[in-house]
Amino acid sequence: MESNVTFDYSTALADRRIPNPILTASGTAGSGKELAQFFPLSDIGAVVTKSIMLKPRSGRATPRMAETPSGMLNSIGLQGPGIDIFLENDIPWLASQGARIIVSIAGETVEDYAVLARKLRAVPGITALEVNISCPNVENRGQVFACNPTTAREAISAVRRNIGGELPIFAKLSPDVTDIVSIATEVVDAGADGLALINTILGMVIDTNTMFPRLSQKTGGLSGPAIRPVAVRAIYQVHAALPNIPIIGMGGVASGRDAFELVLAGASAISVGTATFGNPTAAISIKQELESILIEKGFATFHQAIGFAHREEI
Amino acid sequence: MEMPTINSRAKQMDAEVISNKRLGAYNHIVLAVNEIATYAKPGNFVAISVGGPGSSMVLRRAFAIYRAQIRPDGQGVMELVVAPHGNGSKWLASREPGESVNIVAPLGTAFGIPTEPVRALLIGGGYGSAPLFALAENLKAKGSRVDMVLGASTAAKIYAPLEGKRSVNSMTITTDDGSAGTQGRVSDVLPSIIEQNQIEIIYSCGPMAMLSAITDIANRYGVMHQCSVEESMACGIGVCMTCVLPVEGRDGITRMVRTCIEGPVMDGSKVTWSKSREIPDGVWGK
How confident is the model at residue A1 (pLDDT cuts 50, 70, 90)? Predict the structure, then answer.
């Protein structure tokens, strides 16, 4: 008798199905062209673009980066070309590569989110939107939508109203909150089809030689394996509360084993970010390692493993 | 505007350490890199993973390529000069022959070499001299005159191998403490060398303050200046957006550009050196 070797690695992002659950993380894959030199972008589940804003943006002064134990701080300030140039250049190029595209958007006002959604609603070839309401690098601390249930709701609601019913939207949340479940519940109620957990954690490094903060903006977002337990906790808590809401999990995933941990917590897909800085082909090796682990553990489909750590002990 | 893209020859591979020797304050490391050796040009850099599996150092380290060549036995090799000052470079400097390191190379832009013979001045600060010797050889092969100035804080930090000295017409050394050559900075000796040797182009590699000072002098004399910048990087392949500098483009607009993609070799006169740690007014998207 032949053993069944066909493993179903596909996953669903709301009503969209992608062939495997490994994505890039927003802001760690450039325009896609840089990584395309190392692997075909169509080999991963989807490319999540840098967070795109309404207008061109220079980003912050340097130093923008500091390595930390098992991680790094960054304060890029959402440098990018703005939505119009992005739609003209980046999207057609990604589509020409056969990449599935998740567009990440970020705004400074609720109206920005509404306008961005209107500009994207008729664009063909997009799988989903990731709405970055949690970037801790935006100048005005009051504008971190994700840290307040009301502003989080307003931003997501603006996107939902303007994107139409077609495109799934994933709200990307900050872990820098007291109760992430209440924020998650609020944005889902406002029309988010899914969640992206977690954004970076606000941190600081002080240079003990100069005796000043290392980054020009003083604070930066901490990413890398150092924050993985925070990601696992956030995904676990939110999946427990909202088991039917798909979660794009991220936070320090550097191996198939790490990706598996986030899947067990409740992630339906995994974004690979900081690991790509250390290894341009990290997403591909993580994809292969995760598949091997799932098969080895006896799962017949990827779907079966999502949230498996929540099962009742017998 | 289209974003410039990564060096089209860049490849990732595990490279075996062929040799690793201590030379003064530095380590001279030779890696087996196959055909990458054919594509690496003076000015290009290599991004190396450090610390081994499970390391807490998650980012690659960027090093200027000292020299890359196909040896007579057909082996493609890449040579590096590493200053072991941080945990990553110390790890690399302690690799034994036979061990492997994961590299991505060649990355970034290379020094442009005029088709006609020129009178060139090459300036290196500390181990910034590393990529200049292969450049000197290429310039000499085109019939150019090559003068070189190397500066460092102290004699032990001057990197000038014997065969490097042979490849230039003149070599001037400066040290801050006077332990070798002229006491002072490279910028102190430049005006007289530029005038005496009627320098037409300057190539430089070293710390930002030095490159900024050289740019001022080059502008004053109306001499072209190609410099290789050292901005700290997380990835080396254009995806992290940390290594940016304000640089004026061909369209006259200054943008924050990635020095790993549009550099490390840049036209010094286009960099806003005085505000390299700021977002200057007028920068695109400010």
Answer: very low
Task: List A residues 228-257 in contact with B (Cβ-Cβ < 8 A).
Answer: 254
Cross-chain Cβ contact A58/B245 below 8 Å: no
Mode of pairing for the β-strands spanning A11-13 and A47-48: unpaired
We report the CATH number of the domain holding residue B169 as 3.40.50.80
- Structural domains of chain A, ranges and CATH numbers in brackets: 11-310 (3.20.20.70)
* Rounded Cα–Cα distance for residues A252 and A227 (Å): 6
Q: Is B96 on the interface with A (CB under 8 A)?
A: no
DSSP result, A91-141: HHHHHHTT--EEEEE--SSHHHHHHHHHHHTT-TTEEEEEEE---TTSS-G
Q: Give catalytic status of residue A147 as yes or no.
A: no
Query: Are the beta carbons of A48 and B225 closer than 8 angstroms?
Result: no
Q: Where are the alpha helices (DSSP H) in chain A?
A: 33-36, 83-96, 110-120, 149-163, 180-189, 228-241, 256-265, 274-278, 282-296, 302-305
pTM of the predicted model as reported, rounded to 2 decimal places: 0.95
What are the tens digits of pLDDT across the range B60-111? 999 999 999 999 999 999 999 999 999 999 999 999 999 999 999 999 999 9
